[in-house]
Amino acid sequence: MNPPAFSVSSKSALRPAWLEASSVQAKLLSLILILCTLAMSGCAAYQHKEKHELGYLQRAQTQTKGNFQVSVVVLSAQESEALFGSALADQGIQPVWVRIRNNDPVPYWLYAIALDPAYFSPHEAAWKNHFFLGGSENSAMDSHFRKQQIHRFVPPGQTISGFLFTRLDEGIKPVTIDLQSADGDAKTFFFSVPVPGLPVDSDQVDFDALYSEEEIVRIEDLAGLRTWIESLPCCVFGEDGTTPGDPLNLVMIGERGVVASAFIHQGWRPVEITYAGSLWKMVKSSLFGSEYRYSPMSPLHLFGRSQDFGLQKPRETIDQRNHLRLWLAPARFKGMPILVGQISRDIGVRMTGKLWPPTTHVIDPEVDEARWYLAQDLATSQHLIQAGLAKGVGLSTEDKPQYNLLGDPYYTDGLRLVALFTAEPTAYDEIDFLAWEEPRDIRYLQSGDD
User: Fold this and answer.
1) What's the longest Cα–Cα distance across the chain?
2) What is the pTM of this model?
3) Integer Cα distance of 349 and 286 in angstroms
4) In sequence order, what DSSP letters do the residues of 338-384 get, joined into one string?
5) pLDDT at residue 130 greater than cutoff 70
6) Domain map of the chain by residue range?
7) Using one digit for the tens of pLDDT, what is the confidence trace for 347-382?
8) Where does 51-195 sit in CATH, by number?
């Protein structure tokens, strides 16, 4: 005889009553434990450290203009969590400490929107970090955040200080402090402030030890500068130092801090070193189409070493970005450092058997597009004083391109962008354009054209 067939309902009907009761009790007990856990976490005491316990003010950068002095510090993720008792970086929030001394006889207003058009109010920043069922602890958090905020009004003859809550930047942060008086007078301060925590490529370079004084070529006039630029190698190279790669199409002249500030304030970001953590970020960004603003770059070589530092202006995903590599050259123009390098535009990714991981970016073959983008970007940075084009790698056209290390074709008018920087804000109509070389429209040129 076959055993009786039971439906689900008939099986349930045969369960002992005590078993059903214990199942319900277990579920109720689990629910109670979850609620108790949430309640206990919500009732955790709000704790934070005081400013004097952290020492971040030792990193303050200070600028003085006329009767104004401004100092700034950008907190690391660990410092902001200690000072505000909340993991602000996990919420994409970064506190910036500002001190303003106004020795003018008139009051000024601090325009926080110049620092970050989407800055957070103190209550907003606190709300994102409230405890579940926090009650009075959340109120204490709100109060602490409000007390730490800098006031927007700067009276004459007084000093104010405090924090602005901005969106998160890593490695280095552009900080613009804009002050306006009632009669229309303006005071603007530009800072590029290092942020501890992100290991970037330039941290590994001792720039002062790259060359001896005897190795440095001293250039004192534009004619000498042009001759020196045109004598540079055609390209950057592979690890062997001889296999040509991307064209050497950039020459940047100015103090490194000023050059970096111009780029950072235009939205360019530093490059994280290559290690397991950064590789994992790259994979996630590529697979899920997320942003990774500090993606590492593969090494290229010049002057016997890989790039001193890279910069990139990312789009929404890691697959697309403008990026450049720079090297400090063994030369100075009127005492200013000279940085040379290459720029190209990444437009996608592809597989390759020449690297590990076995993927690489695909560059826009018309590399002059990236060079022209940078020229426009720097012209609006308010740090450019002179700019022009000089001879470089030489003409290559679509019908007869050159190739980089990974075999990708590129074509170019063969010129180099030359840019001289100044620390003082400079309007576009104050830029001196060097009448050296004119760009050519390579769409209508063929190989062999002069």
Assistant:
1) 109
2) 0.79
3) 9
4) EEEEEEEEEEEEEE-SSSSSSEEEEEPSBTHHHHHHHHHHHHTTT-E
5) yes
6) 51-195, 201-444
7) 666 545 455 555 565 678 899 999 999 999 999 999
8) 2.60.40
